[in-house]
Specification:
The chain is α/β, with parallel strands linked by helices. It has a single domain (6-322), classed as Ribokinase (UDP-N-acetylmuramoyl-L-alanine:D-glutamate ligase), CATH 3.40.1190. 29% of the residues lie in helices and 25% in strands. It has ten helices and 17 strands. A nine-stranded mixed beta sheet has the order 6-1-11-12-13-14-15-16-17, sandwiched between helices. It has a four-stranded mixed beta sheet with strand order 5-2-9-10. A hairpin with a 3-residue loop joins strand 15 and strand 16 (246-250). Helix 1 packs across helix 9. The longest helix is centred in the middle third of the chain and has 15 residues, at 157-171. It is globular and about 60 Å long. The structure holds adenosine-5'-triphosphate and magnesium ion (MG). Adenosine-5'-triphosphate (ATP) is lined by residues 203, 233-236, 239, 252-253, 256, 258, 264-265, 268, 290, 293-294, 297.
Length: 323
């Protein structure tokens, strides 16, 4: 039997606290929807859900639940949010020995107010973490992994992404990229490092910043000029993926009631890699990615719905043909 793949996720983590209240009642003023937060008043919160998020910590949990060697690396502090993130990852069996903790670092923190109509207001503190040089990150970890999954590198941005990708290339470690905000800020720089990327997964609007194309299929075909495996998703409208040999078009895995979209993209991309890294077919990897992300949107928070190993999947609209 082939060895169990080791995947290293690098990037920021957050504590997310969801508050629901009958008093978060929306009303419109002009075009903007508001919820009343009267000053000097104590408002009743009917339920509190504690969760953790941050793209890299979310994907690390998919890898762990799917039985892979999953490691998470970042800079965290001694604040309650950092403690919570680490405990969550420990409980999930994600290796965290390479997380550097120093008192000047802080995990991200969000309070999410859920209004009675399901809309949300997020109060976000982005945390304090490493810089563009990746100070306090142990780059040796990259050489020890089969795959590295960098995402949401905060102030490290595209410069840190370049350092990680270069280290991976030198060590023959494969890179999966599902870039988040800081890495998307400069599409030209992102494009320049794609030659070191094995799997690129983006949503439609993001991919349109990198290559030309109107349809998912056009975008995938153009992305294949840069990377061996390209995947473009479009929410409930489906996904197209290709490894240069076959092209897979998939629809919706299941028409579920969406409770919270947070983590959909992470569950999809990590769901894909959790299978692809184990040499599953393109089609089977896309089916699992779709099932994983569909499950995540039915729960509050980015991690609650991540599928456990052995979950039975059902058929979905999907078809595959030669490129
Ligand atoms: N409303 C939905 N119902 C069912 N599945 C969904 C829904 N929205 C998203 N998904 C699943 O999540 C996957 C990824 O969603 P999407 O294409 O919106 O990615 P994204 O824009 O990168 O998400 P994110 O904002 O989390 O980064 C989809 O391919 C689909 O499988
Ligand atoms: Mg995304």
């Amino acid at each position: 039997m082939a060895a169990v793949p080791k995947i290293l996720a690098i990037g920021k983590a957050t504590q997310d606290v969801f508050l629901r209240s009958d008093e978060f009642d929306p009303h419109t003023e002009g075009k903007i929807l508001y919820t009343h937060l009267p000053l000097g008043v104590k408002m009743e919160v009917s339920d509190v859900t504690f969760a953790t998020g941050g793209n890299a910590s979310n994907v690390a949990v998919t890898f762990a639940r799917q039985g892979l060697h999953s490691e998470y690396m970042w800079t965290l502090g001694h604040d309650p949010a950092s403690e919570t993130v680490l405990r969550d990852l420990d409980d999930e069996g994600v290796a965290t020995a390479r997380v550097t903790r120093k008192s000047h670092y802080q995990a991200g923190y969000s309070t999410i107010l859920i209004a009675t109509n399901g809309e949300r207001t997020i109060l976000n503190h982005r945390g304090v973490s490493t810089d563009t040089k990746g100070t306090d990150l142990d780059f040796n970890a990259i050489a020890e992994a089969d795959w590295v999954y960098p995402t949401s590198l905060a102030n490290g941005g595209i410069e840190l992404l370049r350092l990680i990708v270069d280290a991976a290339e030198k060590a023959n470690t494969k890179v999966m990229l599902n870039p988040a905000g800081p890495e998307l800020a400069d599409p030209a720089k992102l494009k320049a490092l794609l030659e070191s990327v094995e799997v690129l997964c983006m949503n439609k609007e993001e991919m349109q910043q990198i290559v030309e194309g109107e349809t998912l299929e056009e975008l995938v075909r153009h992305a294949l000029h840069y990377v061996p495996v390209a995947i473009v998703s479009d929410g409930p409208n489906g996904v197209v993926a290709s490894d240069g040999k076959t092209i897979v078009r998939a629809g919706m895995y299941e028409d579920v009631k969406v409770i919270d979209r947070t983590g959909a993209g992470d569950a999809f991309a990590s769901g894909f890699l959790s299978q692809w890294a184990q040499d599953k077919s393109l089609k089977d990897s896309i089916i699992f990615a779709s099932a994983n992300s569909t499950s995540v949107v039915t729960k509050l928070g980015a991690k609650g719905g991540i599928l456990q190993a052995g979950t039975k999947l059902h058929a979905m609209p999907i078809h595959e043909q030669p490129v």
